[in-house]
Structures are given as C-alpha cells and as structure tokens.
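wait is this the right file?? whatever heres the structure
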C-alpha cells in the first residue's frame, strides 16, 4: 500500500496551529513565536514533511532559492567551485538547495523534478568535463548555468585548461626542458585533452614537437603517476621534463623517479595541475597551475542571478584565468 504524502495540513494538525502559521514559520515573512516555531519544526521532522515552495513562488514570482546540482562531491575541484558559490551568495537574499548524483543520478528529468518541487529560481550544475553537456533548450524549466561543461545553448563556466597546458609548456621550456613528456589522466576527459592540446601547441610554437610516443594516459591517481614514471625508466626513454594532468599524478611520478635515483628537478622537472593543498606540503613541493576555481564559482552565482533578473539574455562561455605556481619540483628557487 502506497503511503500518503505528508501535507502541510498534517503538520498544522500535529503542531496544533493553523496552516497559515506553518507557512509563516517556513518562509519567515511573518513573526512566529520561538515556542510555536519549535513545535512546528518538531512536527515536520517527525512526519517527514518536505515543504513545497511552489505556492509562495506563484505569489511573488520568486522563491529566492538557487539549485545546485553536483556530479561528484568527493572531487576537490567541486569543493573549490562550491566554496566560490557559497561566498558569492552571501548577502544576496538567496539560499542554496543542493542535490547530487549520489541521490538523483544523472537523468535530467529526475534532476529537474527534484529542484522544481522547491520552486527554484535558477540552477547551477557542476559536472565532470568528460563529454559536452547534452542539456538542450527543452530542459530550460528554469534558468541554468553549466559549470565545467560545454554547450552553446547555455551559459557555461569553465577552467581554461588549454591555457593551463600552455603555461606549463612555457615554464618547462624557460627552465631548460627540451625533451618533454605528458602524463595524462583518462582519455575521455575533455579537460585532459584540452590541457594536452595547450601544452602541445605552446611547445610547437617554441620549436619543440610533442610526438604521440611522448603522450601517455592513465588515471588521476598517485599510482598512475608511479606507473608511468616506472615505465619511462624501464623503457630508457630520454626525458628531462613532464607535464602531469593533475597534482596526484605529479606526486606519484616524483616519488617513483626519486626512488629510482633521479634528482628532482635536476634530472627531470615535473609540473602538475589543480593546486591541490597536498602539493605544497610534499617533500619536494610540486609546481602546479591554479585554475582559479573559486572565482568560477563566484562568477556562476553572479551569472545565474543576472539571468534571473533579465527578461532576455544571450548565453556566454566564461573561462577562468589560471596561473602557474613555481615550486621545487621544476626549478631551483
């Protein structure tokens, strides 16, 4: 037997108040005594009531809620972006409603249904940049900003991964590297391929060709960095500098090269990407590229509010401004 959905009327009855009083306690637009509010919140918790904001949304045209869908909360890059969003929303009068792929999956209809129940004014999504986003204009149940995604029909906020690769190439070249290598992450990640292309294009402009034999792919892990470093040594391949697709790969590579007797950065210079907190605390601090992800989060929040306030707008693509942080893994400082 299907259990009947708990209604606001049930909450009012359990708390011994009117439906209007429950509404005031939830939206904060009329004063409610602390004792009454506590009684209402206790009833909500005990009954498992999920508020629907659609009524107030229809009344004033706004819920002052921004949805935020996150593909993977365990990823560091996600947390940096979220930090920027949370910083930017302070003082705006808006609040965030979160949903993740863990609870919602990746089906767009499910995602929209979940956020629609809150009557959100707009949605920010933070995705894996593995494929171009397949959201379409038909999915615009509310304004949407896509983070870490490419899609010409929507506002897209992305790290400039090509520039990150170019910065690494220039840095290695300036520090004497003439036999570069690329240790990549998963080949299906657009972010990895963009970093590779930026790296390769800048090297080419400097007179160095990065051949296919000098490009390897693995995972975004310490172990993958160790394995690729081991293989490079086992196959006796000449190399004096490596760009790693992220800091974890770089840390693994540094460890394995060091275990095999190589001096870092004297024999091989190594640079990562992402500026993970751990990179600066390694025995050999890792040169890396900061993708300015918090700035992306701030801009995404500002942009969704602009769209909400606008009667009409043209989608834009915004890239961050990454910068290189030189440390001991690539240069004697």
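ok assuming it is, sequence goes like this
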């Amino acid at each position: 037997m299907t259990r009947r959905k708990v209604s606001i009327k049930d909450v009012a009855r359990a708390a011994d108040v009117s439906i209007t009083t429950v509404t005031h306690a939830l939206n904060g637009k009329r004063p409610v005594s602390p004792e009454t509010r506590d009684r209402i919140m206790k009833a909500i918790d005990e009954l498992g009531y999920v508020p629907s904001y659609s009524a107030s949304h229809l009344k004033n045209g706004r819920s002052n809620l921004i949805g935020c869908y996150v593909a993977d909360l365990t990823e560091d890059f996600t947390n940096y972006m979220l930090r920027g969003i949370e910083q930017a929303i302070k003082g705006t009068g808006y609040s965030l409603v979160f949903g993740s792929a863990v609870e919602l999956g990746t089906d767009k209809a499910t995602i929209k249904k979940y956020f629609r129940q809150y009557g959100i004014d707009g949605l920010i999504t933070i995705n894996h940049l593995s494929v171009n986003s397949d959201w379409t204009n038909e999915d615009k149940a509310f304004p949407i900003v896509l983070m870490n995604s490419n899609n010409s029909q929507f506002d897209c906020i992305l790290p400039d991964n090509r520039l990150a690769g170019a910065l690494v190439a220039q840095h290695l070249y300036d520090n004497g590297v003439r036999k570069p290598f690329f240790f990549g992450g998963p080949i299906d990640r657009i972010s990895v391929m963009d970093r590779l292309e930026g790296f390769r294009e800048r090297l080419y402009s400097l007179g160095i060709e990065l051949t296919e034999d000098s490009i390897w792919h693995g995972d975004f892990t310490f172990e993958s960095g160790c394995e690729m470093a081991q293989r490079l040594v086992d196959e006796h391949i000449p190399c004096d500098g490596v760009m790693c697709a992220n800091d974890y790969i770089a840390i693994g590579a540094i460890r394995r090269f060091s275990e095999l007797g190589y001096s870092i950065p004297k024999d091989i210079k190594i640079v990562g990407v992402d500026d993970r907190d751990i990179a600066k605390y390694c025995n050999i601090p890792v040169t890396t590229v900061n993708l300015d992800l918090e700035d992306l989060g701030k801009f995404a929040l500002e942009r969704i509010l602009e769209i909400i306030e606008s009667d009409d707008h043209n989608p834009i693509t915004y890239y961050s401004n990454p910068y290189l942080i030189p440390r001991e893994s690539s240069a004697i400082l």
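The longest strand covers residues 65-70. so i think its the right one actually
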